[in-house]
Amino acid sequence: MTHIDELAALGTSTWLDDLSRDRITSGNLAEVIEAKSVVGVTTNPAIFAAAMSKGTAYDAQIAELKAAGAAVDEAVYAMSIDDVRDACDVFLPIYERTGGVDGRVSIEVDPRISEDRDATIAQARELWNKVDRPNVMIKIPATPGSLPAITDALAEGISVNVTLIFSVARYREVIAAHREGIRRAAEKGLDVSQIHSVASFFVSRLDVEVDRRLEEIGTPEALALRGKAGVANAQRAYAVFQEIGAKDLPAGAHPQRPLWASTGVKNPDYSPTLYVTELAGPDTVNTMPEPTIDAVLEHGGLHGDTLTGAEPAAHEIFEQLVAVGIDMEDVFAVLEREGVEKFVSAWNDLLDSMESQLR
Protein backbone atom coordinates (compact mmCIF):
# COMPACT_ATOMS: atom_id res chain seq x y z
CA MET A 1 0.00 0.00 0.00
CA THR A 2 1.54 3.30 -1.11
CA HIS A 3 1.16 6.64 0.64
CA ILE A 4 -1.23 7.68 -2.15
CA ASP A 5 -3.32 4.61 -1.30
CA GLU A 6 -3.25 5.71 2.34
CA LEU A 7 -4.46 9.14 1.24
CA ALA A 8 -7.30 7.48 -0.66
CA ALA A 9 -8.23 5.51 2.46
CA LEU A 10 -8.63 8.84 4.27
CA GLY A 11 -11.08 9.92 1.56
CA THR A 12 -8.89 12.06 -0.72
CA SER A 13 -8.67 11.11 -4.40
CA THR A 14 -5.40 11.93 -6.16
CA TRP A 15 -5.68 13.50 -9.61
CA LEU A 16 -2.75 14.47 -11.83
CA ASP A 17 -2.54 18.15 -12.73
CA ASP A 18 -0.97 17.59 -16.12
CA LEU A 19 -1.69 16.11 -19.53
CA SER A 20 0.06 15.87 -22.87
CA ARG A 21 -0.20 13.75 -25.99
CA ASP A 22 3.20 12.24 -25.21
CA ARG A 23 1.87 11.01 -21.87
CA ILE A 24 -1.03 9.29 -23.59
CA THR A 25 0.64 7.78 -26.65
CA SER A 26 3.78 6.62 -24.81
CA GLY A 27 1.74 4.75 -22.23
CA ASN A 28 3.02 7.01 -19.46
CA LEU A 29 -0.48 8.03 -18.37
CA ALA A 30 -1.48 4.39 -17.94
CA GLU A 31 1.76 3.79 -16.02
CA VAL A 32 1.07 6.72 -13.69
CA ILE A 33 -2.41 5.35 -13.01
CA GLU A 34 -1.04 1.90 -12.24
CA ALA A 35 2.10 2.81 -10.31
CA LYS A 36 1.01 5.99 -8.54
CA SER A 37 -2.71 5.35 -7.89
CA VAL A 38 -3.78 8.42 -9.85
CA VAL A 39 -7.55 8.40 -10.49
CA GLY A 40 -8.13 11.57 -12.53
CA VAL A 41 -6.58 14.43 -14.50
CA THR A 42 -7.01 18.19 -14.57
CA THR A 43 -5.83 20.51 -17.33
CA ASN A 44 -5.68 24.26 -17.86
CA PRO A 45 -4.44 26.64 -20.58
CA ALA A 46 -0.94 26.69 -19.09
CA ILE A 47 -0.71 22.89 -19.19
CA PHE A 48 -1.76 22.73 -22.84
CA ALA A 49 0.55 25.62 -23.70
CA ALA A 50 3.48 23.67 -22.27
CA ALA A 51 2.44 20.44 -23.98
CA MET A 52 1.85 21.87 -27.45
CA SER A 53 4.88 24.15 -27.60
CA LYS A 54 7.52 21.43 -27.38
CA GLY A 55 8.27 18.10 -29.00
CA THR A 56 6.76 16.62 -32.14
CA ALA A 57 3.66 14.83 -30.83
CA TYR A 58 1.30 17.36 -32.38
CA ASP A 59 3.12 17.92 -35.68
CA ALA A 60 0.99 15.59 -37.81
CA GLN A 61 -2.29 17.07 -36.58
CA ILE A 62 -0.98 20.61 -36.96
CA ALA A 63 -0.14 19.81 -40.59
CA GLU A 64 -3.66 18.47 -41.17
CA LEU A 65 -5.24 21.51 -39.55
CA LYS A 66 -3.00 23.83 -41.57
CA ALA A 67 -4.01 22.11 -44.79
CA ALA A 68 -7.66 22.47 -43.81
CA GLY A 69 -7.23 26.19 -43.18
CA ALA A 70 -8.17 25.94 -39.51
CA ALA A 71 -8.23 29.12 -37.42
CA VAL A 72 -5.79 29.18 -34.54
CA ASP A 73 -8.48 28.87 -31.82
CA GLU A 74 -10.07 26.01 -33.73
CA ALA A 75 -6.73 24.21 -34.01
CA VAL A 76 -5.90 24.54 -30.31
CA TYR A 77 -9.27 23.21 -29.22
CA ALA A 78 -9.21 20.41 -31.79
CA MET A 79 -5.95 19.12 -30.32
CA SER A 80 -6.99 19.70 -26.71
CA ILE A 81 -10.29 17.89 -27.24
CA ASP A 82 -8.54 14.92 -28.83
CA ASP A 83 -6.15 14.67 -25.88
CA VAL A 84 -8.93 14.91 -23.33
CA ARG A 85 -11.07 12.36 -25.19
CA ASP A 86 -8.18 9.89 -25.33
CA ALA A 87 -7.39 10.46 -21.64
CA CYS A 88 -11.05 9.85 -20.80
CA ASP A 89 -10.79 6.48 -22.52
CA VAL A 90 -7.73 5.61 -20.43
CA PHE A 91 -9.58 6.52 -17.23
CA LEU A 92 -12.88 4.88 -18.18
CA PRO A 93 -12.33 1.72 -16.07
CA ILE A 94 -11.79 3.89 -12.98
CA TYR A 95 -14.87 5.94 -13.81
CA GLU A 96 -16.94 2.77 -14.06
CA ARG A 97 -15.44 1.20 -10.94
CA THR A 98 -16.11 4.30 -8.82
CA GLY A 99 -19.59 4.99 -10.13
CA GLY A 100 -18.46 8.19 -11.81
CA VAL A 101 -16.85 9.72 -8.74
CA ASP A 102 -13.32 9.42 -10.13
CA GLY A 103 -11.81 8.62 -13.50
CA ARG A 104 -12.45 12.23 -14.49
CA VAL A 105 -10.60 14.41 -17.01
CA SER A 106 -11.17 18.18 -16.99
CA ILE A 107 -10.98 20.64 -19.88
CA GLU A 108 -11.40 24.39 -19.39
CA VAL A 109 -13.46 26.95 -21.24
CA ASP A 110 -11.65 29.89 -22.81
CA PRO A 111 -10.53 32.09 -19.88
CA ARG A 112 -11.07 35.22 -21.98
CA ILE A 113 -14.85 34.80 -21.71
CA SER A 114 -14.94 34.33 -17.93
CA GLU A 115 -17.33 37.26 -17.45
CA ASP A 116 -19.69 36.30 -20.27
CA ARG A 117 -22.41 33.90 -19.12
CA ASP A 118 -23.83 33.19 -22.57
CA ALA A 119 -20.46 32.58 -24.20
CA THR A 120 -19.33 30.39 -21.30
CA ILE A 121 -22.35 28.10 -21.31
CA ALA A 122 -22.22 27.90 -25.12
CA GLN A 123 -18.62 26.75 -25.03
CA ALA A 124 -19.21 24.41 -22.07
CA ARG A 125 -21.97 22.77 -24.09
CA GLU A 126 -19.75 22.56 -27.17
CA LEU A 127 -16.84 20.99 -25.28
CA TRP A 128 -19.14 18.51 -23.54
CA ASN A 129 -20.58 17.39 -26.88
CA LYS A 130 -17.29 17.28 -28.76
CA VAL A 131 -15.38 15.31 -26.15
CA ASP A 132 -18.43 13.05 -25.95
CA ARG A 133 -17.28 10.99 -23.00
CA PRO A 134 -19.25 10.47 -19.77
CA ASN A 135 -16.19 11.08 -17.59
CA VAL A 136 -15.21 14.50 -18.91
CA MET A 137 -15.62 17.54 -16.65
CA ILE A 138 -15.90 21.05 -18.03
CA LYS A 139 -13.88 23.60 -16.06
CA ILE A 140 -15.64 26.92 -15.51
CA PRO A 141 -14.12 29.69 -13.35
CA ALA A 142 -15.94 30.91 -10.26
CA THR A 143 -15.99 34.51 -11.43
CA PRO A 144 -19.17 36.55 -10.91
CA GLY A 145 -19.90 36.45 -14.62
CA SER A 146 -19.48 32.67 -14.87
CA LEU A 147 -21.39 31.61 -11.74
CA PRO A 148 -24.73 31.60 -13.62
CA ALA A 149 -23.13 29.56 -16.41
CA ILE A 150 -22.09 26.95 -13.83
CA THR A 151 -25.74 26.61 -12.84
CA ASP A 152 -26.80 26.47 -16.51
CA ALA A 153 -24.30 23.73 -17.31
CA LEU A 154 -25.26 21.54 -14.36
CA ALA A 155 -28.94 22.03 -15.20
CA GLU A 156 -28.21 20.53 -18.63
CA GLY A 157 -26.53 17.49 -17.11
CA ILE A 158 -22.97 18.65 -17.75
CA SER A 159 -20.47 17.65 -15.07
CA VAL A 160 -18.52 20.73 -13.97
CA ASN A 161 -15.18 21.43 -12.34
CA VAL A 162 -15.58 24.89 -10.83
CA THR A 163 -12.12 26.45 -10.82
CA LEU A 164 -10.27 29.51 -9.47
CA ILE A 165 -11.92 29.61 -6.05
CA PHE A 166 -9.96 31.52 -3.43
CA SER A 167 -12.35 32.75 -0.72
CA VAL A 168 -14.87 30.97 1.47
CA ALA A 169 -17.41 33.67 0.60
CA ARG A 170 -17.10 32.86 -3.11
CA TYR A 171 -17.22 29.15 -2.28
CA ARG A 172 -20.64 29.63 -0.67
CA GLU A 173 -21.81 31.16 -3.95
CA VAL A 174 -20.41 28.15 -5.82
CA ILE A 175 -22.32 25.78 -3.54
CA ALA A 176 -25.50 27.76 -4.20
CA ALA A 177 -24.88 27.66 -7.96
CA HIS A 178 -24.38 23.90 -7.79
CA ARG A 179 -27.51 23.35 -5.74
CA GLU A 180 -29.62 25.42 -8.12
CA GLY A 181 -28.21 23.66 -11.18
CA ILE A 182 -28.92 20.20 -9.77
CA ARG A 183 -32.41 21.30 -8.72
CA ARG A 184 -33.17 22.48 -12.25
CA ALA A 185 -31.77 19.26 -13.71
CA ALA A 186 -34.05 17.22 -11.46
CA GLU A 187 -37.05 19.33 -12.50
CA LYS A 188 -36.26 18.51 -16.13
CA GLY A 189 -36.31 14.82 -15.30
CA LEU A 190 -32.57 14.30 -15.78
CA ASP A 191 -30.83 11.54 -13.84
CA VAL A 192 -28.99 13.68 -11.31
CA SER A 193 -26.98 10.68 -10.11
CA GLN A 194 -25.01 11.00 -13.36
CA ILE A 195 -24.03 14.64 -12.74
CA HIS A 196 -20.81 15.20 -10.80
CA SER A 197 -19.01 18.36 -9.78
CA VAL A 198 -15.94 19.48 -7.87
CA ALA A 199 -15.09 22.90 -6.44
CA SER A 200 -11.40 23.73 -6.98
CA PHE A 201 -9.79 25.77 -4.20
CA PHE A 202 -6.36 27.22 -5.04
CA VAL A 203 -4.04 26.76 -2.08
CA SER A 204 -0.39 27.64 -2.66
CA ARG A 205 -1.17 30.88 -4.49
CA LEU A 206 -2.80 32.18 -1.31
CA ASP A 207 0.36 31.52 0.69
CA VAL A 208 2.52 33.22 -1.92
CA GLU A 209 0.45 36.41 -1.75
CA VAL A 210 -0.08 36.42 2.02
CA ASP A 211 3.56 35.54 2.76
CA ARG A 212 4.70 38.46 0.60
CA ARG A 213 2.53 40.82 2.63
CA LEU A 214 3.64 39.30 5.94
CA GLU A 215 7.28 39.82 4.99
CA GLU A 216 6.54 43.45 4.14
CA ILE A 217 5.05 43.90 7.61
CA GLY A 218 8.12 42.17 9.04
CA THR A 219 7.14 41.89 12.71
CA PRO A 220 7.84 38.62 14.56
CA GLU A 221 4.09 38.05 14.89
CA ALA A 222 3.61 38.48 11.16
CA LEU A 223 6.56 36.34 10.11
CA ALA A 224 5.36 33.51 12.36
CA LEU A 225 2.21 33.23 10.23
CA ARG A 226 4.00 32.49 6.96
CA GLY A 227 2.86 29.31 5.24
CA LYS A 228 -0.35 29.01 7.24
CA ALA A 229 -2.99 30.91 5.28
CA GLY A 230 -3.44 28.43 2.42
CA VAL A 231 -4.11 25.39 4.60
CA ALA A 232 -6.28 27.35 7.03
CA ASN A 233 -8.38 28.77 4.21
CA ALA A 234 -8.97 25.31 2.74
CA GLN A 235 -9.85 23.92 6.16
CA ARG A 236 -12.40 26.70 6.64
CA ALA A 237 -13.87 25.85 3.25
CA TYR A 238 -14.11 22.19 4.18
CA ALA A 239 -16.12 23.11 7.28
CA VAL A 240 -18.59 24.91 5.00
CA PHE A 241 -18.75 21.82 2.77
CA GLN A 242 -19.57 19.65 5.79
CA GLU A 243 -22.18 22.14 6.93
CA ILE A 244 -24.10 22.80 3.72
CA GLY A 245 -22.46 20.95 0.82
CA ALA A 246 -25.08 18.22 0.69
CA LYS A 247 -27.95 20.29 2.02
CA ASP A 248 -31.21 20.47 0.03
CA LEU A 249 -29.96 18.39 -2.90
CA PRO A 250 -32.51 16.28 -4.80
CA ALA A 251 -32.63 12.56 -4.10
CA GLY A 252 -29.77 10.70 -5.75
CA ALA A 253 -27.65 13.82 -6.29
CA HIS A 254 -23.98 13.90 -5.39
CA PRO A 255 -22.46 16.62 -3.21
CA GLN A 256 -19.91 18.80 -4.95
CA ARG A 257 -16.56 17.62 -3.57
CA PRO A 258 -13.91 20.17 -2.60
CA LEU A 259 -10.80 19.86 -4.76
CA TRP A 260 -7.46 21.22 -3.58
CA ALA A 261 -5.62 22.76 -6.54
CA SER A 262 -2.32 24.61 -6.83
CA THR A 263 -0.85 22.13 -4.36
CA GLY A 264 2.72 22.23 -5.61
CA VAL A 265 4.69 24.01 -2.88
CA LYS A 266 6.20 27.28 -4.12
CA ASN A 267 8.44 27.98 -1.10
CA PRO A 268 11.35 25.49 -0.78
CA ASP A 269 11.40 26.11 2.97
CA TYR A 270 8.06 24.32 3.30
CA SER A 271 7.51 20.58 3.18
CA PRO A 272 6.85 19.45 -0.41
CA THR A 273 3.80 17.58 0.88
CA LEU A 274 2.40 20.44 2.98
CA TYR A 275 -0.78 20.87 0.91
CA VAL A 276 -1.45 17.14 0.93
CA THR A 277 -0.80 15.97 4.47
CA GLU A 278 -2.66 18.95 5.98
CA LEU A 279 -5.64 18.66 3.62
CA ALA A 280 -6.49 14.96 3.85
CA GLY A 281 -10.03 13.89 4.62
CA PRO A 282 -13.32 12.43 3.43
CA ASP A 283 -14.98 13.41 0.14
CA THR A 284 -12.12 15.48 -1.27
CA VAL A 285 -9.82 15.56 -4.29
CA ASN A 286 -6.23 16.75 -4.45
CA THR A 287 -4.93 17.49 -7.95
CA MET A 288 -1.14 17.53 -7.89
CA PRO A 289 1.71 18.08 -10.31
CA GLU A 290 3.69 14.87 -10.65
CA PRO A 291 6.62 16.05 -8.49
CA THR A 292 4.19 16.52 -5.60
CA ILE A 293 2.75 13.04 -6.16
CA ASP A 294 6.29 11.67 -6.11
CA ALA A 295 7.05 13.56 -2.89
CA VAL A 296 4.00 12.02 -1.22
CA LEU A 297 4.98 8.56 -2.43
CA GLU A 298 8.49 9.02 -1.09
CA HIS A 299 7.93 10.89 2.16
CA GLY A 300 4.33 10.19 3.17
CA GLY A 301 3.90 12.18 6.34
CA LEU A 302 0.17 11.57 6.50
CA HIS A 303 -1.26 11.84 9.96
CA GLY A 304 -4.90 11.04 9.57
CA ASP A 305 -7.88 13.23 8.73
CA THR A 306 -6.59 16.80 8.95
CA LEU A 307 -9.81 18.43 7.74
CA THR A 308 -12.61 17.30 10.02
CA GLY A 309 -12.70 19.49 13.10
CA ALA A 310 -9.88 21.75 11.90
CA GLU A 311 -12.03 24.89 11.46
CA PRO A 312 -11.58 26.43 14.96
CA ALA A 313 -7.78 26.47 14.67
CA ALA A 314 -8.04 27.70 11.06
CA HIS A 315 -10.37 30.50 12.13
CA GLU A 316 -7.87 31.54 14.79
CA ILE A 317 -5.11 31.78 12.16
CA PHE A 318 -7.30 34.10 10.08
CA GLU A 319 -7.96 36.28 13.12
CA GLN A 320 -4.20 36.50 13.65
CA LEU A 321 -3.63 37.44 10.03
CA VAL A 322 -6.13 40.26 10.29
CA ALA A 323 -4.61 41.35 13.62
CA VAL A 324 -1.15 41.81 12.09
CA GLY A 325 -2.59 43.89 9.24
CA ILE A 326 -3.47 41.51 6.39
CA ASP A 327 -6.53 42.63 4.40
CA MET A 328 -7.84 39.22 3.40
CA GLU A 329 -10.64 40.61 1.23
CA ASP A 330 -8.06 42.46 -0.83
CA VAL A 331 -5.92 39.32 -1.00
CA PHE A 332 -8.82 37.31 -2.42
CA ALA A 333 -9.72 40.04 -4.92
CA VAL A 334 -6.13 40.24 -6.17
CA LEU A 335 -5.81 36.47 -6.49
CA GLU A 336 -9.05 36.07 -8.42
CA ARG A 337 -8.12 38.82 -10.85
CA GLU A 338 -4.57 37.50 -11.28
CA GLY A 339 -5.84 33.93 -11.61
CA VAL A 340 -7.90 34.82 -14.65
CA GLU A 341 -5.10 37.00 -16.04
CA LYS A 342 -2.55 34.20 -15.75
CA PHE A 343 -4.77 31.75 -17.61
CA VAL A 344 -5.53 34.38 -20.27
CA SER A 345 -1.80 35.03 -20.65
CA ALA A 346 -1.07 31.31 -20.99
CA TRP A 347 -3.89 30.98 -23.50
CA ASN A 348 -2.60 33.90 -25.57
CA ASP A 349 0.91 32.44 -25.50
CA LEU A 350 -0.50 29.15 -26.77
CA LEU A 351 -2.43 30.90 -29.55
CA ASP A 352 0.67 32.85 -30.59
CA SER A 353 2.75 29.68 -30.69
CA MET A 354 0.09 27.80 -32.64
CA GLU A 355 -0.36 30.65 -35.10
CA SER A 356 3.33 30.57 -35.95
CA GLN A 357 3.17 26.79 -36.43
CA LEU A 358 0.11 27.04 -38.66
CA ARG A 359 1.90 29.62 -40.77
UniProtKB/TrEMBL annotation:
Catalytic site positions: 139
Compartment annotation: Cytoplasm
Keyword Transferase attributed: yes
Primary localization: cytoplasm
A Pfam family per the record: TAL_FSA
Domain of life (superkingdom): Bacteria
UniProt keyword terms in alphabetical order: Cytoplasm, Pentose shunt, Schiff base, Transferase
Main EC class the enzyme belongs to: transferase
Protein name as catalogued: Transaldolase
Organism of this sequence: Corynebacterium nasicanis
Taxon lineage: Bacteria, Bacillati, Actinomycetota, Actinomycetes, Mycobacteriales
